[in-house]
Amino acid sequence: MKKIITAILISTALLAGLCTADDQKEMPAMDEHKEGMTGKDGLKQLMVHHAVFRTPIPGAVNSAAFFELKNAGKHDIIIVGAKSGVAKMTQIHNHINDQGVMKMRQVEKLTLAAGDELAFKPGGLHIMFMGLEPNISEGQMIDFQLLLASGKTIDISAMVGKVKKHKM
Ligand SMILES: [Cu+2]
């Protein structure tokens, strides 16, 4: 894991297709009243499912969280970062294949278009927690936030648990 972490490079345009959207589109939807929604400040159209925080290996200072996001609203949502109280640094990461070697890169901007879904999953997008506080244990709930371009935040609660390994 440490080796992988040292390979992190800051990338501003990892997902070229996702980095071109207009920041001004994001607006709270006022007409969505479905179950299973999360968010605040009018962002009830953003749904989070299957959030899990990978049980840290004993002694490890890093871990990751995975979940599925659905934008059930009528406006695109621009995600520009993440934060948490359980790690010194919390970032959105993705994996890229660099000549056969999978490397993690920070993602500084993600657009979730209206109606679209986005999976944060092993081997792909994930929330990376670096410099974890000690004694995080299975079954515990970890809270973190997604930061939006609008300045709003999305609260996510993920249970600490095992995550299936993912083959590339
Ligand atoms: Cu990562």
Description:
The chain is mainly beta. It has one domain (2-24, 34-161): Immunoglobulin-like (Sandwich). Helices cover 3% and strands 48% of the residues. The chain contains one helix and eleven strands; from the N terminus they run H-E-E-E-E-E-E-E-E-E-E-E. The longest helix has 5 residues, at 2-6. The model is unreliable at 1-42 (pLDDT under 50). Copper (II) ion binds at residues 64, 93, 104, 126, 128.
Record keyword descriptors for this entry.
48% strand; binds copper (II) ion; Immunoglobulin-like; 168 residues; 3% helix; disordered N terminus; mainly beta
Overall 3D form:
globular
The helix content is under 10%
Small-molecule components bound: copper (II) ion
**Structural domain count:** 1
Examine the coordinates and then state which fold CATH places here, giving the name of the CATH topology. Immunoglobulin-like
In DSSP terms (H or I, runs of 4 or more residues), the helix count works out at 1
Provide the CATH superfamily.
PCu(A)C copper chaperone
Estimate what percentage of residues fall within beta strands. over 45%
CATH class: Mainly Beta
H-E string: HEEEEEEEEEEE
**Largest sheet data:** 11 strands, mixed
